[in-house]
Amino acid sequence: MEHVDVMVLRTLAEWRAQGRRAMLATVVRTWGSSPRPVGSMLALREDGAVVGSVSGGCIEDDLIHRHVHAGALPEGLPRFLTYGVSADEAHRFGLPCGGTLELLLEPDPDAALLRALIDALDAGHLMRRAVRLRDGRVTQGATAEPAAYATAEEVVNTFGPAYRLLLIGAGALAECLATMALFSGFTVTVCDPREEYAGHWGVAGAKLVRAMPDDAVADFRPDARSAVVALTHDPKLDDLALLQALESPAFYVGAIGSRRNDAARRARLAEHFGLSSAQLARLRGPVGLFIGSRTPPEIAVSIMAELLAVKNGVALPAALSVRAAKDLGSAPCHQDSRALADAA
User: Fold this and answer.
1) Which of 3, 110, 129, 245 might form a disulfide with 185, Cβ 3.0–4.6 angstroms?
2) 132, 138, 140, 145: CA torsion to nearest 10
């Protein structure tokens, strides 16, 4: 599944290229609790078709009522629209704890500019988009740092290329994890040179490569929006991939296995490949959060939960790690079971 921001922009660009009227609504400010974060977007077509989300549904319904059922989409310059100023309105629109949010409404965004933005995102660029309120002028271009803010004169947002995940190994666990990553908005690549695994790969939307893992990581070129997870249990495959990944800016590098296997892996990477303690500290293993998982789908949930927490900047308590749980004697099976070895 495509990341929701790109999906909204892509759909809006298609509508506008067809000559259809449409409006882009973007959350630019929130006060108190809000169901959707700043930067969330929704595109609304003249006939009421909608893609994206700026709330739990009530604000979407109101936008459709205001601009489709009760008349027509707005024209002219971009403008702000605020919901939840009063407690009654906050309750009406399902904003918790008296929350308030402000939207920027952009009538009929330029189709060519939208297409250029999507093409840049597809090419892997981080893009800055600015809307000037006094005349509606939109400027956009590549940027090195994300930024998002709204003033009385200008609204700026940053759009990044999709987050990417490289899985080493094409077994049952990889199928579950790839599926979860795809519907979480990641672009997924799976590497496995082994015919007995790669020959039966069947997850639509995940790219399969047959190169050796170290070559696959090099070709993947992990960046700060990339994650690499080794799932084969085979040091000849996992170690070389991890060696490449730990020397990259990838935000998440992990490997499946028991505590004993993890300790042996770290010792090999230090002794034979000269990885420093700082580099090894970036390696997450045994990978995932402790949730008592035993089956491939459950283990995939464990890994995906940790990966998303790291992506979203959540500081996870050490007690949630598989290692800590096992050290306390509360995880007799997770990542040591034969079922897991078979799954990977």
Assistant:
1) 3
2) 30
Q: Which residue has the tokens 């918790």?
A: 96
Give 305-308's long-range contacts (Cβ < 8 A, gap of 24+). Answer: 306/254, 307/165, 307/181, 307/227, 307/229, 307/252, 307/254, 308/184
3-state secondary structure of 286: coil
Q: What is the number of other CB atoms lying within 10 angstroms of the CB of residue 45? A: 19
Q: How far is CA 219 from CA 12, 50, 165, 255, in A?
A: 32, 38, 13, 19
- DSSP string spanning 105-162? EEES--HHHHHHHHHHHHTT--EEEEEETTT--EEEEE-SS---EE-SSEEEEEE-PP
Which domains, ranges and CATH numbers included, belong to the chain?
4-159 (no CATH), 164-343 (3.40.50.720)
Dihedral sign, Cα of residue 161, residue 165, residue 166, residue 172: negative
Encode pLDDT of 288-312 as tens digits.
999 888 899 999 999 999 999 999 8
Given a cut of 70, the residues of the chain with pLDDT beneath it are 1-2, 32-35, 56, 70, 85-99, 329-344
Task: Provide the b/e sequence for 255-266 (b: ≥16 CB within 10 Å).
Answer: bbbbbebbeebb
pTM of the model: 0.75
Q: How many CB atoms lie within 10 A of CB 106?
A: 23
Helical spans, DSSP H, in the chain: 4-17, 58-64, 87-92, 111-122, 172-183, 195-198, 213-220, 235-246, 259-273, 277-281, 296-311, 322-327, 338-343
Model pLDDT, residue 95:
59
- Would you state the structure tokens that stand for residue 276, as one six-digit string? 């420093």
